[in-house]
């Protein structure tokens, strides 16, 4: 299906809470120029820009794709903005691949950016995030993201026997993984006790089980091999894409603890890639909450018994399938529009053997990237292949 | 630079207006599928089960049983099943300090949106509700 689409280059800014007075326009320029340099391309080589930004409420900038094309020196490119809640960055990546596959562009720059931390007060961001669910029945009632994730996690725990200690282990490990990532928001050395003794937000979730609000940008460039310097032979390829939605209202799902939409997105991505689950050597998975990482790994179909696999160390850097070596959202951070783009960059650079952070014990040939919006309501999965 | 915007929305409720008007009176007006009989609360514009748009209205008693809940004493959110409904609903708890397992739909304060549940106070014996 996909023929030779390469991730030609990528770059990101640090993900953190900006206190240096820099703006999301500055971060965008930094990420775009970094991606161009990494791909050995010039701004004039780019003919399409896809911008991922979850909400105008964060940037206070409508029509951001046109503005950022202008600010980043991509004059005259075709431009659009892609959005899918928390999956916006990954949705933009899919839109870029689709434009290439459909012959609409030759070299696409995908830019994700979000000032999720510094522009608004945390409570205001929380109120906006709550509108990611059925706003009329949930968000406006004050039913917030953490509560919905907590209810879903409780149902998952009831069915699988997972304990909060399993979740806390993920909260610890992803922060430790982030320790080698120079762009990470929370490269923390914390213990399970630290997680358990952090403030209880919504049972089973404590403060350290939750991903942070971050500022930042990430950019990558997509092109066919023939349109790249040296035919992009040192760059990872896009093998399969899958996207699927689930029922928006948590209560209407047959099992509110199971990410059924993610299961389908994964199945579609594997089907397009023509590879087996056992071919996947590492994964970047959407860990907006510690337990959500386990729920995601279950739904992606990567293992039979996800709780046993977690306890066996399978998802650690020296395990059979390292997960979130970047630190994930919990450790690297989550500037929403940039999140999915950064996940793809991390997976691609790992496959190319040039990742800047923690690397797997064993080189992988295929990597899986997973992102979602809502509570696994809009699910986006990609499978990449090493050069 | 500093920028502050106050946005005052008016949101027409469309086909679901009877449902939301009932909620503001504290009544549980559900949608019922004319094709397969599936009862949805909160109401839907299309049947969640078979996709039919031949929906009518049915009034539920408004009583519900809690499946799981989260939050603290100040704020609580629960997944509950309203009696007569075929799926669960997320509700905000009006009295989250109560540990009850059943409750009744409650009129939201200040015409707020969504479903609010008032938990029943369990008797000292723990075998009934008052
Ligand atoms: Zn029906």
TrEMBL record, chain A:
Keywords, alphabetical: Transferase
Superkingdom of the organism of origin: Bacteria
InterPro entries: Thiolase (IPR002155), Thiolase-like (IPR016039), Thiolase_C_2 (IPR055140), Thiolase_N (IPR020616)
UniProt KW Cell cycle keyword: no
MF terms in GO: acetyl-CoA C-acyltransferase activity
Ranges for domain Thiolase N-terminal: 5-225
Cross-referenced CDD domains: SCP-x_thiolase
Family matches, as Gene3D superfamilies: 3.40.47.10
UniProt KW rRNA-binding keyword: no
The Thiolase C-terminal domain, residue ranges: 242-385
Name of this chain's protein: Acetyl-CoA C-acetyltransferase
Organism of origin: Hoeflea halophila
TrEMBL record, chain B:
Organism domain of life: Bacteria
Pfam family, one: zf-ChsH2
PANTHER family: BLR3430 PROTEIN
Protein name: Rubredoxin-like zinc ribbon protein
Lineage, opening ranks: Bacteria, Pseudomonadati, Pseudomonadota, Alphaproteobacteria, Hyphomicrobiales
Stretches assigned to the ChsH2 rubredoxin-like zinc ribbon domain: 20-55
């Amino acid at each position: 299906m996909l023929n030779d689409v390469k991730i030609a280059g990528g770059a990101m800014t640090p993900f953190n809470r900006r206190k240096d007075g820099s703006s999301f326009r500055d971060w965008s320029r930094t990420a775009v120029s970094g991606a161009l340099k990494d791909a050995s391309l010039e701004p004039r080589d780019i003919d399409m820009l896809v911008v991922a930004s979850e909400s105008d409420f964060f940037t206070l900038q409508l029509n951001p794709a046109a503005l950022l094309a202008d600010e980043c020196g991509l004059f005259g490119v075709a431009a659009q903005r892609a959005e899918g809640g928390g999956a916006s960055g990954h949705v933009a990546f899919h839109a870029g691949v689709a434009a290439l596959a459909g012959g609409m562009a030759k070299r696409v720059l995908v830019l994700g950016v979000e000032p999720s931390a510094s522009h608004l007060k945390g409570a205001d961001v929380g109120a906006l995030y709550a509108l990611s669910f059925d706003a009329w029945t949930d968000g406006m009632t004050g039913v917030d993201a953490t509560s919905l994730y907590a209810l879903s996690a409780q149902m998952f725990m009831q069915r699988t026997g997972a304990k909060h200690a399993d979740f806390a282990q993920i909260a610890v490990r992803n922060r430790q993984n982030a320790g080698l990532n120079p762009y990470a928001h929370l490269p923390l050395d914390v213990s399970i006790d630290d997680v358990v003794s952090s403030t209880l937000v919504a049972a089973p979730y404590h403060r350290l089980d939750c991903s942070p609000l971050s500022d930042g940008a990430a950019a990558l460039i997509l092109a066919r091999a023939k349109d790249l310097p040296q035919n992009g032979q040192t760059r990872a390829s896009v093998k399969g894409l899958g996207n699927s939605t689930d029922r928006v209202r948590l209560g209407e799902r047959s099992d509110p603890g199971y990410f059924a939409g993610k299961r389908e997105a994964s199945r579609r991505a594997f089907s397009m890639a023509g590879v087996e689950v056992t071919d996947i050597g590492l994964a970047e998975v959407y860990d907006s909450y510690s337990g959500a990482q386990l729920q995601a790994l279950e739904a992606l179909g990567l293992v039979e018994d996800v709780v046993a696999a977690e306890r066996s160390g399978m998802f650690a850097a020296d395990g059979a399938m390292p997960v979130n070596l970047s630190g994930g959202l919990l450790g690297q951070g989550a500037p929403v529009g940039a999140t999915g783009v950064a996940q793809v960059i991390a997976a691609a650079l790992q496959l190319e053997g040039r990742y800047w952070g923690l690397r797997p014990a064993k080189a992988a040939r295929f990597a899986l990237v997973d992102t979602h919006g809502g509570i696994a309501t809009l699910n986006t999965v990609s499978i990449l292949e090493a050069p | 630079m500093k920028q502050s915007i106050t946005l005052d929305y008016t949101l027409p409720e469309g086909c679901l207006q009877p449902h939301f008007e009932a909620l503001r009176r504290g009544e549980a007006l559900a949608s019922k599928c004319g094709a397969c009989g599936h009862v949805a609360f909160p109401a839907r514009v299309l049947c969640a089960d078979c996709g039919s748009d031949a929906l009518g209205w049915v009034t539920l008693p408004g009583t519900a049983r809690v499946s799981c809940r989260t939050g603290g004493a100040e704020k609580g959110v629960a997944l509950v099943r309203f009696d007569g409904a075929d799926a669960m609903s997320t509700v905000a708890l009006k009295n989250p300090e109560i540990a009850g397992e059943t409750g009744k739909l409650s009129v939201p304060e200040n015409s707020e949106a969504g479903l609010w549940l008032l938990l029943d106070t369990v008797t000292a014996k723990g075998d009934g509700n008052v």
